[in-house]
Amino acid sequence: MKSENMTVPDAAQTCDKSHVLCRGDDKASLPRDARLPINRCNLPAVVLGSLSYQKYPIPLLLDGVAELHRDLFDRLNATPPEALGAVFADYLTVHFRLERPEEMGLRAGFGGDRKNRAKANYIRMIRGWSFDSDSREGAVLKGWVESRFGLPPRYHGQALRDFSGEAYRRYLEMRSHGLYGTGALEAQFDLVYAFCQLQLALGYPPQNPPQTHLTLYRGVNRMSDHEVLSKGEGGRHIILLNNLNSFSRSRERAGEFGDYIMTADIPLTKIFFHCGLLPGVLKGEDEYLVIGGVVEVTLSTL
Protein backbone atom coordinates (compact mmCIF):
# COMPACT_ATOMS: atom_id res chain seq x y z
CA MET A 1 0.00 0.00 0.00
CA LYS A 2 1.34 3.43 -0.87
CA SER A 3 1.82 5.67 2.10
CA GLU A 4 0.33 8.69 0.37
CA ASN A 5 -3.04 6.94 0.34
CA MET A 6 -3.12 7.13 4.12
CA THR A 7 -2.01 10.75 4.38
CA VAL A 8 -4.44 13.02 6.20
CA PRO A 9 -4.96 16.30 4.27
CA ASP A 10 -3.55 19.45 5.76
CA ALA A 11 -6.24 21.31 7.70
CA ALA A 12 -4.91 24.68 6.59
CA GLN A 13 -5.34 23.72 2.94
CA THR A 14 -8.95 22.65 3.44
CA CYS A 15 -9.87 25.73 5.45
CA ASP A 16 -8.70 27.98 2.62
CA LYS A 17 -11.58 26.60 0.55
CA SER A 18 -14.29 27.16 3.15
CA HIS A 19 -15.35 30.53 1.72
CA VAL A 20 -16.44 28.75 -1.47
CA LEU A 21 -18.90 26.64 0.49
CA CYS A 22 -20.55 29.57 2.21
CA ARG A 23 -22.22 30.92 -0.91
CA GLY A 24 -25.87 30.07 -1.58
CA ASP A 25 -29.39 31.17 -0.80
CA ASP A 26 -31.10 31.02 2.58
CA LYS A 27 -32.83 27.73 1.77
CA ALA A 28 -29.44 26.08 1.42
CA SER A 29 -28.12 27.45 4.70
CA LEU A 30 -28.02 25.61 7.99
CA PRO A 31 -30.58 27.26 10.33
CA ARG A 32 -29.08 29.15 13.23
CA ASP A 33 -30.71 26.93 15.86
CA ALA A 34 -29.26 23.82 14.17
CA ARG A 35 -25.62 24.70 14.72
CA LEU A 36 -23.16 25.57 17.46
CA PRO A 37 -20.67 28.44 17.24
CA ILE A 38 -17.72 26.14 17.94
CA ASN A 39 -16.79 22.56 17.14
CA ARG A 40 -13.72 20.32 16.98
CA CYS A 41 -12.95 20.03 13.30
CA ASN A 42 -11.49 22.14 10.51
CA LEU A 43 -14.77 23.59 9.18
CA PRO A 44 -17.46 25.48 11.11
CA ALA A 45 -20.89 23.92 11.43
CA VAL A 46 -22.50 26.58 9.22
CA VAL A 47 -20.28 25.37 6.36
CA LEU A 48 -20.20 21.60 6.82
CA GLY A 49 -23.94 21.52 7.49
CA SER A 50 -24.89 23.50 4.39
CA LEU A 51 -26.32 22.35 1.07
CA SER A 52 -23.24 23.74 -0.65
CA TYR A 53 -21.12 21.31 1.33
CA GLN A 54 -23.28 18.40 0.20
CA LYS A 55 -22.56 19.37 -3.40
CA TYR A 56 -18.89 20.38 -3.00
CA PRO A 57 -17.40 18.48 -0.03
CA ILE A 58 -13.84 18.76 1.20
CA PRO A 59 -12.21 16.62 3.93
CA LEU A 60 -13.39 16.96 7.52
CA LEU A 61 -10.50 16.67 9.97
CA LEU A 62 -11.09 16.14 13.67
CA ASP A 63 -8.82 18.18 15.91
CA GLY A 64 -5.72 16.33 17.06
CA VAL A 65 -6.65 12.83 15.87
CA ALA A 66 -3.91 12.47 13.26
CA GLU A 67 -1.30 13.92 15.61
CA LEU A 68 -2.26 11.95 18.73
CA HIS A 69 -2.58 8.63 16.92
CA ARG A 70 0.22 8.84 14.38
CA ASP A 71 1.36 5.37 15.42
CA LEU A 72 -1.96 3.90 14.29
CA PHE A 73 -1.75 5.53 10.86
CA ASP A 74 1.85 4.41 10.48
CA ARG A 75 0.77 0.84 11.19
CA LEU A 76 -2.08 1.09 8.69
CA ASN A 77 0.39 2.34 6.09
CA ALA A 78 2.32 -0.91 6.40
CA THR A 79 -0.75 -3.18 6.41
CA PRO A 80 -2.33 -4.96 3.42
CA PRO A 81 -5.96 -3.93 2.78
CA GLU A 82 -7.46 -7.21 3.93
CA ALA A 83 -5.89 -6.84 7.40
CA LEU A 84 -6.69 -3.17 8.06
CA GLY A 85 -9.79 -3.90 10.16
CA ALA A 86 -7.91 -6.29 12.44
CA VAL A 87 -5.06 -3.82 12.97
CA PHE A 88 -7.50 -1.03 13.74
CA ALA A 89 -9.53 -3.11 16.21
CA ASP A 90 -6.36 -4.31 17.94
CA TYR A 91 -5.08 -0.75 18.31
CA LEU A 92 -8.32 0.43 19.96
CA THR A 93 -8.37 -2.59 22.27
CA VAL A 94 -4.85 -1.87 23.49
CA HIS A 95 -4.91 1.94 23.48
CA PHE A 96 -8.19 2.20 25.41
CA ARG A 97 -7.57 -0.92 27.53
CA LEU A 98 -10.92 -2.35 26.43
CA GLU A 99 -10.08 -5.79 27.82
CA ARG A 100 -8.39 -4.44 30.97
CA PRO A 101 -10.64 -1.65 32.27
CA GLU A 102 -8.88 -1.63 35.63
CA GLU A 103 -5.89 -0.09 33.85
CA MET A 104 -8.15 2.81 32.87
CA GLY A 105 -9.11 3.46 36.49
CA LEU A 106 -11.87 0.95 37.20
CA ARG A 107 -11.64 -0.29 40.78
CA ALA A 108 -13.20 -3.43 42.19
CA GLY A 109 -16.09 -3.11 44.62
CA PHE A 110 -18.03 -0.33 42.89
CA GLY A 111 -21.00 -2.48 41.93
CA GLY A 112 -22.23 -4.24 38.84
CA ASP A 113 -23.33 -1.12 36.98
CA ARG A 114 -19.83 0.41 37.00
CA LYS A 115 -18.37 -2.89 35.84
CA ASN A 116 -20.92 -3.18 33.03
CA ARG A 117 -20.34 0.40 31.90
CA ALA A 118 -16.65 -0.40 31.50
CA LYS A 119 -17.70 -2.78 28.72
CA ALA A 120 -19.52 -0.01 26.83
CA ASN A 121 -17.14 0.44 23.91
CA TYR A 122 -17.52 1.73 20.37
CA ILE A 123 -18.83 -1.63 19.13
CA ARG A 124 -21.62 -1.81 21.70
CA MET A 125 -22.59 1.80 21.04
CA ILE A 126 -22.92 1.24 17.29
CA ARG A 127 -24.84 -1.98 17.80
CA GLY A 128 -27.12 -0.21 20.26
CA TRP A 129 -27.81 2.46 17.64
CA SER A 130 -28.77 -0.21 15.10
CA PHE A 131 -31.44 -1.56 17.49
CA ASP A 132 -32.79 1.85 18.53
CA SER A 133 -31.35 5.20 17.46
CA ASP A 134 -33.29 6.89 20.29
CA SER A 135 -31.63 4.73 22.94
CA ARG A 136 -28.91 5.69 25.41
CA GLU A 137 -26.33 4.52 22.89
CA GLY A 138 -27.97 6.71 20.27
CA ALA A 139 -27.75 9.70 22.60
CA VAL A 140 -24.02 9.10 23.07
CA LEU A 141 -23.41 8.97 19.32
CA LYS A 142 -25.53 12.05 18.66
CA GLY A 143 -23.64 13.81 21.43
CA TRP A 144 -20.35 12.96 19.75
CA VAL A 145 -21.58 14.50 16.48
CA GLU A 146 -22.72 17.57 18.41
CA SER A 147 -19.32 17.92 20.08
CA ARG A 148 -17.11 17.26 17.06
CA PHE A 149 -19.08 18.86 14.22
CA GLY A 150 -21.21 21.45 16.02
CA LEU A 151 -24.52 19.91 14.87
CA PRO A 152 -26.97 19.43 17.76
CA PRO A 153 -29.52 16.61 17.44
CA ARG A 154 -32.90 17.60 16.06
CA TYR A 155 -34.69 14.50 17.31
CA HIS A 156 -34.20 11.96 20.09
CA GLY A 157 -37.43 10.21 20.98
CA GLN A 158 -39.14 13.52 20.28
CA ALA A 159 -38.32 16.78 18.55
CA LEU A 160 -35.49 18.80 20.13
CA ARG A 161 -36.04 22.49 19.45
CA ASP A 162 -35.72 24.14 22.85
CA PHE A 163 -32.30 23.73 24.48
CA SER A 164 -33.89 24.56 27.84
CA GLY A 165 -36.85 22.22 27.37
CA GLU A 166 -37.62 18.87 28.96
CA ALA A 167 -36.96 16.89 25.77
CA TYR A 168 -33.43 18.27 25.43
CA ARG A 169 -32.72 17.73 29.13
CA ARG A 170 -33.81 14.12 28.73
CA TYR A 171 -31.40 13.70 25.80
CA LEU A 172 -28.56 15.23 27.87
CA GLU A 173 -29.33 12.88 30.75
CA MET A 174 -29.23 9.83 28.48
CA ARG A 175 -26.01 11.05 26.92
CA SER A 176 -24.30 11.61 30.26
CA HIS A 177 -25.44 8.24 31.62
CA GLY A 178 -24.14 6.58 28.46
CA LEU A 179 -20.72 8.18 28.84
CA TYR A 180 -20.37 7.65 32.59
CA GLY A 181 -17.83 5.04 33.63
CA THR A 182 -16.63 4.31 30.08
CA GLY A 183 -13.18 4.35 28.51
CA ALA A 184 -13.09 7.62 26.53
CA LEU A 185 -15.94 6.64 24.23
CA GLU A 186 -15.92 9.86 22.22
CA ALA A 187 -12.19 9.47 21.54
CA GLN A 188 -12.96 5.95 20.29
CA PHE A 189 -15.56 7.40 17.91
CA ASP A 190 -12.95 9.88 16.64
CA LEU A 191 -10.83 6.99 15.47
CA VAL A 192 -13.80 5.09 14.02
CA TYR A 193 -14.61 8.12 11.86
CA ALA A 194 -10.97 8.60 10.83
CA PHE A 195 -10.62 4.92 9.94
CA CYS A 196 -13.86 4.98 7.95
CA GLN A 197 -12.59 7.95 5.96
CA LEU A 198 -9.31 6.18 5.20
CA GLN A 199 -11.13 3.09 3.98
CA LEU A 200 -13.42 5.17 1.78
CA ALA A 201 -10.41 7.00 0.36
CA LEU A 202 -8.89 3.63 -0.52
CA GLY A 203 -12.01 2.70 -2.44
CA TYR A 204 -13.99 0.59 -0.02
CA PRO A 205 -16.83 0.12 -0.58
CA PRO A 206 -15.89 -0.01 -4.29
CA GLN A 207 -16.49 3.15 -6.31
CA ASN A 208 -15.87 2.78 -10.01
CA PRO A 209 -14.79 5.30 -11.06
CA PRO A 210 -13.69 6.89 -7.73
CA GLN A 211 -16.33 9.29 -6.46
CA THR A 212 -16.85 11.95 -3.82
CA HIS A 213 -20.42 10.80 -3.05
CA LEU A 214 -22.45 7.64 -2.55
CA THR A 215 -26.11 7.38 -3.48
CA LEU A 216 -27.89 6.19 -0.35
CA TYR A 217 -31.53 5.49 0.50
CA ARG A 218 -33.78 5.91 3.49
CA GLY A 219 -37.29 4.53 3.93
CA VAL A 220 -39.83 7.04 5.30
CA ASN A 221 -43.58 6.99 5.92
CA ARG A 222 -44.25 10.72 6.21
CA MET A 223 -42.17 13.68 5.10
CA SER A 224 -43.95 15.61 7.85
CA ASP A 225 -41.62 13.78 10.23
CA HIS A 226 -38.70 15.62 8.61
CA GLU A 227 -37.76 19.29 8.57
CA VAL A 228 -38.50 20.32 4.98
CA LEU A 229 -36.86 23.64 4.10
CA SER A 230 -38.15 23.82 0.52
CA LYS A 231 -39.81 21.72 -2.19
CA GLY A 232 -39.03 21.50 -5.89
CA GLU A 233 -40.17 19.59 -8.94
CA GLY A 234 -39.87 15.87 -9.44
CA GLY A 235 -40.09 15.01 -5.75
CA ARG A 236 -37.00 17.03 -4.87
CA HIS A 237 -36.87 18.42 -1.34
CA ILE A 238 -34.28 20.33 0.63
CA ILE A 239 -34.43 19.01 4.18
CA LEU A 240 -32.58 19.30 7.45
CA LEU A 241 -31.49 15.87 8.63
CA ASN A 242 -30.99 14.87 12.23
CA ASN A 243 -27.35 15.17 13.24
CA LEU A 244 -26.85 11.39 12.77
CA ASN A 245 -28.99 9.20 10.53
CA SER A 246 -29.29 5.66 9.20
CA PHE A 247 -29.28 5.17 5.43
CA SER A 248 -28.86 2.10 3.26
CA ARG A 249 -26.98 1.49 0.06
CA SER A 250 -29.75 -0.89 -0.96
CA ARG A 251 -32.95 0.74 -2.23
CA GLU A 252 -34.80 -2.52 -1.69
CA ARG A 253 -33.76 -2.77 1.96
CA ALA A 254 -34.60 0.87 2.58
CA GLY A 255 -38.09 0.18 1.24
CA GLU A 256 -38.68 -2.20 4.15
CA PHE A 257 -38.71 0.77 6.54
CA GLY A 258 -41.27 3.03 4.87
CA ASP A 259 -43.76 3.58 2.08
CA TYR A 260 -41.54 6.15 0.37
CA ILE A 261 -37.87 6.15 -0.55
CA MET A 262 -35.70 9.16 0.14
CA THR A 263 -32.66 9.17 -2.17
CA ALA A 264 -29.65 11.37 -1.46
CA ASP A 265 -26.12 11.78 -2.78
CA ILE A 266 -24.15 11.73 0.46
CA PRO A 267 -20.57 13.01 0.58
CA LEU A 268 -18.12 10.32 1.62
CA THR A 269 -16.88 12.76 4.27
CA LYS A 270 -20.30 12.60 5.97
CA ILE A 271 -20.17 8.82 6.49
CA PHE A 272 -19.26 7.94 10.07
CA PHE A 273 -19.62 4.16 9.79
CA HIS A 274 -20.95 1.50 7.44
CA CYS A 275 -21.72 -2.17 7.87
CA GLY A 276 -18.70 -3.35 5.87
CA LEU A 277 -16.13 -1.30 7.76
CA LEU A 278 -15.58 -3.75 10.61
CA PRO A 279 -17.17 -7.12 9.80
CA GLY A 280 -19.46 -8.41 12.51
CA VAL A 281 -20.28 -5.06 14.12
CA LEU A 282 -23.42 -4.35 12.06
CA LYS A 283 -25.45 -6.97 10.22
CA GLY A 284 -28.23 -6.49 7.70
CA GLU A 285 -29.77 -3.53 5.92
CA ASP A 286 -26.42 -2.54 4.39
CA GLU A 287 -26.55 0.28 6.93
CA TYR A 288 -24.63 3.56 6.75
CA LEU A 289 -24.46 6.07 9.60
CA VAL A 290 -24.55 9.54 8.04
CA ILE A 291 -23.73 12.87 9.67
CA GLY A 292 -26.54 15.37 9.18
CA GLY A 293 -27.09 18.91 7.95
CA VAL A 294 -28.98 20.35 5.00
CA VAL A 295 -29.33 17.97 2.04
CA GLU A 296 -31.23 17.74 -1.21
CA VAL A 297 -33.17 14.50 -1.54
CA THR A 298 -35.57 12.98 -4.04
CA LEU A 299 -38.74 11.36 -2.69
CA SER A 300 -40.30 8.50 -4.64
CA THR A 301 -42.70 5.62 -4.09
CA LEU A 302 -41.65 2.01 -3.93
From TrEMBL:
GO biological process: nitrogen fixation
Molecular function in Gene Ontology: NAD+-dinitrogen-reductase ADP-D-ribosyltransferase activity
InterPro entries, per the entry: DRA_trans (IPR009953)
A Pfam family assignment: DRAT
Entry superkingdom: Bacteria
Protein name as catalogued: NAD(+)--dinitrogen-reductase ADP-D-ribosyltransferase
Species of the source: Candidatus Propionivibrio aalborgensis
